[in-house]
Amino acid sequence: MLSKVVFLVVCASVNCFPRLTSLQPRFSFYTRSDWHAQPATDLTPLSTPVPYVIIHHTYKPDACTSHQECITAMQSMQRYHMESLDWGDIGYNFCIGNSGDIYEGRGWERKGIHAGKANDVSIGICLIGDWRVDQPPQEMLEATKALIQMGVDKGIISPDYKLVGHNQVMATQCPGTALFDIISKWDHFSNKFSVA
Ligand SMILES: [Zn+2]
């Protein structure tokens, strides 16, 4: 009995149970080690709960349909963000592939570099691919919603969060017109971004 209690206490403190419970079985969640991320050199913590979720597309790399393609995309983005832009890690908090597989970037607890002044107050989610004309697959969109809900459940994203596109924060085409049209119909979408 004692060992059972100890196990539960230990588990509660280190989160042994799969953090994916709310996502499974529909979406797979891959950690940094799963995609062989390089160690981050920027470990700036994110102040939570955050009031915003920012949606991105990659434009490049292209959409990934297989796990291996998505791993390659994650690695290439991290390499570019670290080596060419000197960002200390991949910029996004999370990225999502065509099949709805979710890839951990900076994760829930570290501040991303993806949307300028919004970095301090948001989780940045990138839907891998060019979504200016083509619409993302339904699985990818549903995984995005599930990931946001997971962040709310974990207390990282404020329950009354606002959802905005990168283009509402900075002058950019990101997340692409087709994707932006979709997210603009989602719950929590906000017409404006403002930092207090
Ligand atoms: Zn963007």
UniProtKB/TrEMBL annotation:
Cross-referenced Pfam families: Amidase_2
Domain N-acetylmuramoyl-L-alanine amidase: 38-176
InterPro entries hit by this protein: Amidase/PGRP_sf, Amidase_domain, Peptidoglycan_recognition, PGRP, PGRP_domain_met/bac
Signal sequence region: 1-16
Domain Peptidoglycan recognition protein family: 27-170
SS bond partners: C64-C70
GO molecular function: N-acetylmuramoyl-L-alanine amidase activity; peptidoglycan binding; zinc ion binding
Superkingdom of the source species: Eukaryota
Coiled coil: none
GO biological process: innate immune response; peptidoglycan catabolic process
Subunit structure and binding partners: Monomer.
Protein name: Peptidoglycan-recognition protein
Organism: Pieris brassicae
